[in-house]
Amino acid sequence: MVACCLVFPLFVSVAMMFGLSLMRDWRQKNPELMQLTDVMNTWKAAHTVWMPKGKHPTDEQFGIYIAANCRGVITSESVWSSTLARTFIAGEARKFAETSLVKYGSPTTKQLAEAEAALKPIVKQQAAVLAPGNGDQMNVLDRPGMSTVMFWATFLIYVGLPAIVAALLFRGGLVLLATGVTYVRKDGRRASRLRLFWRSLVCWSPVVGALVLGGIAVENKSMLFIVLGALLVLALAASSLLLPQRGLQDRLAGTWPVPR
User: What are phi and psi of 259, to 5 degrees?
Assistant: First the structure.
C-alpha cells in the first residue's frame, strides 16, 4: 500500500513531463496550428460562465485575428483534416475558425490593429509556457527542480489530500484500514475526526513545505530549495523511525496508535 502511494505520483509526474515534452515537440513542428490552438483555447475560455464580461477580446477580434494570421492552417486540407487538428480544435471552435475566414476576412486597418493588440499578448503568453529557452530566458518547464515540484504536487493531490479528507470524514483512510490501526486519545477513547484531521495536517505539512520550497527553487533556478524541501520530508520520516511507538504528529495531535 505504501509502495503504491509512492509509485503512483512518480508515474503520474513522469507521464505529465512526457506529455508536456510531446506537446512542445508538436508545437515546434506545427507552429501555425499550435498558434491557432492557443487562439481557440482562449476563445473557449472567453465563453465560459466564470469569465467576466469585457475582460477578453470580442468574437469579432478573434475572427479577424484568425483570418489574418491562421488562414494557411484552415485552408490547408492536409493540416486542417489531420488528427492533430481535429483533436485540438473541434466542435464549435472548429466551426468558428472556419466561418471567420469568410465573415472577418476583410477588416479595416483599425480593426486589424485592434485585433492584433488584443490577441497577440495572450497567444504569446500561452506559447511561452511550452517554448524551449536558455539562460535568463529559460522556460519554467526547463528550470532545475521542475520534475521534483511536479512529483510533490502529484503526491499531495492524489495521496495527501485524499488522506486528509479521509481523516476528517472517516477517521482514517485505506492505509490505516489495511494495517489494522486506529487512534485513541490519552483517556483511551477513540480520537475525534477533528483531532485526526489535525494529525493528518501535521503529517502532510512537510510535503506542502517541500512543494513551496520547490516552487521557490524553480522561480530562482536553484537546487538549494529542492534539497531543503527533501530534508524537510526526510526529517519527519526520521522522527517516525526514531519514535516508532508514537510519532511527532501523534504527540502534537494528542493521539496514540492502537490495533483496530
Answer: -60, 140
